[in-house]
Amino acid sequence: xxxxxxxxxxxxxxxxxxxxxxxxxxxxxxxxxxxxxxxxxxxxxxxxxxxxxxxxxxxxxxxxxxxxxxxxxxxxxxxxxxxxxxxxxxxxxxxxxxxxxxxxxxxxxxxxxxxxxxxxxxxxxxxxxxxxxxxxxxxxxxxxxxxxxxxxxxxxxxxxxxxxxxxxxxxxxxxxxxxxxxxxxxxxxxxxxxxxxxxxxxxxxxxxxxxxxxxxxxxxxxxxxxxxxxxxxxxxxxxxxxxxxxxxxxxxxxxxxxxxxxxxxxxxxxxxxxxxxxxxxxxxxxxxxxxxxxxxxxxxxxxxxxxxxxxxxxxxxxxxxxxxxxxxxxxxxxxxxxxxxxxxxxxxxxxxxxxxxxxxxxxxxxxxxxxxxxxxxxxxxxxxxxxxxxxxxxxxxxxxxxxxxxxxxxxxxxxxxxxxxxxxxxxxxxxxxxxxxxxx
Length: 440
What we know:
Elements: H1 6-20, H2 22-34, H3 41-62, H4 65-78, H5 88-108, H6 111-117, H7 122-135, H8 139-154, H9 159-181, H10 191-217, H11 232-263, H12 265-301, H13 305-332, H14 334-341, H15 345-360, H16 362-377, H17 381-405, H18 409-435
Helix pairs in contact: 1-9, 1-12, 2-3, 2-9, 2-10, 2-12, 3-7, 3-11, 3-12, 4-8, 4-11, 4-12, 5-8, 6-7, 7-10, 8-10, 9-10, 11-12, 11-17, 11-18, 12-13, 12-15, 12-16, 13-16, 14-15, 15-18, 16-18, 17-18
């Protein structure tokens, strides 16, 4: 089967694009809706930015099982041994949900202290707590969905995750308008708590849909079994490396939030807009990372290195091509994108002064995300961990401290993010050339 053709790649990539942007759409919709509330819009938008960054950190850290199980199942398919997967999928889901419940219990009662560390105070802290203590209950459902999506991806299927994600995103948008603004005489306006409730309901519905489709559309063994599957230690080891990788990744993202919050309310509000747009574009490009992950693992399992090299070249080029389209759209709708999230002139002024950097890092975004997906499919979790350590602690943090020393404010924060992405790109390009480009 020709896995590197335009048709084969986009059969995986296009549905994965829609599936991948579900989580950033949940956060972006909340930000856009609350950012246009008639009162306390700036503080509410800032709170969504603070909580959204923290929740993204938790999801990225604990959601790594998705990539690992996708990689393992893909390699088993490539080796023609899918029947040996057995009880692994349900055990992976169990591990994900158990971890999410532990984290929920560990953060719920200390949320105030956590957000104070991110420099939230006053009205922003109050809104952050109100938003988080509702939305966090959707966390176990989100991680369960991630694990199911990993199973589908390993089976070379991104169509059903696309359906689940699309329904979740559309439902969230509708419920946001309903709960935030209310309907006179029927539904009271719940403001920022309404945005959190809309996300929670959407996440629950997505989890129910994901499991129904897993049962009805696949032949995956849904037994947990009495003993751990032999590949569970490998799954835990690979997940552990990605766990540590995600920790260092989120050190960068949370330090960015902390720095922006420390500058002032309008700066964290503008950063919230920028990070939501950046995440949206990153997960849009991530569709090609999914193709690289799914087919890369399969080709590696089959030891077909010629097709593997061809695949990496093509998905990287497609990702960069999409990045340039996103750059063009960013320039064309520069002002409209800001107005989509808020009408506050001070916030818009800060946002417009720095948004050009978000646009310019898109090609780096594409290469970083696409190659990241490929390397996960190849099982290179340890290298990805080490590369993120270097990118964060040698690239991002020194750049952040230097730019803030020279009072570059939000522009400096996003210069540091650009340096962080550059380190990741160069590290993965070097690794692939060294270890796979000349493999026979």
